[in-house]
Amino acid sequence: MSFVTSLSGLKAAQTDLSVVSNNIANSNSIGFKKSRAEFGDLFASAPTQNTKSVAGQGVRLNGIVQQYTQGSLNSTGRTLDLAVAGDGFFIVKGQPPREAQTYTRNGSFTVNVDREVVDSTGNKVQLLPVNAAGQITSTSAADMYDFVLPETDPTDPTAVLSNITIADDGIVSATYSNGNQSRVGAVAMASFAAVEGLRPIGDSHWQATGVSGVALINQAGNGPLGTVRSGTLEAANIDLTEELVGLIAAQRNFQANAKAIETANNMTQAIVNLRS
């Protein structure tokens, strides 16, 4: 029985090593959120059995949970580099035909040949509609649209775009060569009732699930969404010192369980030798 118990500990230590190694490997990934392996003990006994004479049966993995704590904000000076100071996520839309909606904390956005603002995977950043005063007019997912940089002033086709600014509340303003300004929209943000239920899909992107609940859409500055910081990127929420300590602990746990298996094997072999 001790062999099975130690084997479960060995597997748990391997999982812990894998989780910590993944955290360390992504310490430079923009918007990455670290994970933690959570374990529980295994114990079983008959209703009439005295539990004081029963040892546990080992350990099991309860789950690998991501930690959505805030990462440090690093200045880049580039307008389309955006970070969230809060709990919100940027909303992006995939390529046709699926056009899947996903959520990200990686705000390293660029402009493609069609003047669309896209993330590192080519997904299009979504905006909410606003009026001339910069107030949003809808928070419905059906009314969101792609973030496209205007080429000219809508009221003066001879005036070209000269500058884009993004305020802390996510309002995108365009300035043209004739001095006019217009509101392009507000960066769409999402929050979730149970953020731990999001499904990670890589590249600091997540999908909503039945566990996370539906996305609650609004502009920055509302509820738990936080604010948008233009010219800034969010670093991974990794403390390398803490992860290295966890790596050492997981390694020692693995070695201890391996030693326990070796000891149990030696004891079994000694018993066999006594009987022969």
UniProtKB/TrEMBL annotation:
Transmembrane segments: none annotated. InterPro entries: Flag_bb_rod_N, Flagellar_basal_body_rod_CS, Flagellar_FlgE/F/G, Flg_bb/hook_C_dom, FlgE/F/G-like, LlgE_F_G-like_D1. Residues 5-33 form the Flagellar basal body rod protein N-terminal domain. Signal peptide: none annotated. Coiled coil: none annotated. The keyword Zinc does not apply. Its main location: other. Residues 83-174 form the Flagellar hook protein FlgE/F/G-like D1 domain. Pfam families: Flg_bb_rod (PF00460), Flg_bbr_C (PF06429), LlgE_F_G_D1 (PF22692). Residues 230-274 form the Flagellar basal-body/hook protein C-terminal domain. The keyword Signal does not apply. SUPFAM superfamilies: Flagellar hook protein flgE (SSF117143). It is found in: Bacterial flagellum basal body. Belongs to the flagella basal body rod proteins family. NCBIfam families: FlgEFG_subfam (TIGR03506). A flexible structure which links the flagellar filament to the drive apparatus in the basal body. This is Flagellar hook protein FlgE. It comes from Blastomonas aquatica. The lineage of its organism: Bacteria, Pseudomonadati, Pseudomonadota, Alphaproteobacteria, Sphingomonadales.
